[in-house]
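job 3f2a | input accepted
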Amino acid sequence: MSDNELFQTLTRRKTLLEGYGHMTVRLSSANSYSYQKQDTTLRHYCNNYLHPQSLNTLGNETFYLFGDNAHEGWEDLLEMYNKPLYTLPGHLPALSFGIAGPGSGVPFHFHGPVFAETIWGRKRWFIYPPDVKPSFHPNHTTLHWLKEGYPKVKDDLNLYECTLAPGEIIYFPDKWWHATLNIDSSVFVSIFLSP
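job 3f2a | predicted structure (195 res):
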């Protein structure tokens, strides 16, 4: 079994709940400018939050397991992750593990450079260069933007988009605007690069 296959096996829902269900995880609101947090157990999150996203739910009401989790207790799992061979000179990687339900995601935002890999499920990405701020409501979910905003900009030559399947990875540079939409329940790893 390859390292990638082993990591996929370890991140199956049943296996995650058996090994890590008792652990406290920090959820973040899916809102561009709000940083609300909630702590819960992984088991409670998987059993109560991984339902399909509603179009009527606001971003600050949508809590999502991505980033912002202390690595204590996750080290053995994250050590099994086979990081991409790509690097950015002068930058150190920081891993972020996430699990999300269908239709969830993070609306447009930006940060430093990152690699992001989908382990399970499919994840759609919408990306704009740093000098082109996308039009979006900061408290609408990506699903809401897809229905209301995307039809108006789908032919914009500044908009880049793709869908990552399991095992596929994306890189985008510093300060590129991006929004994500989990098409299925998904498991993903982001590798944030900091100088």
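job 3f2a | Helices lie at 3-10, 13-20, 42-48, 75-79, 142-148, 150-153.
job 3f2a | closed
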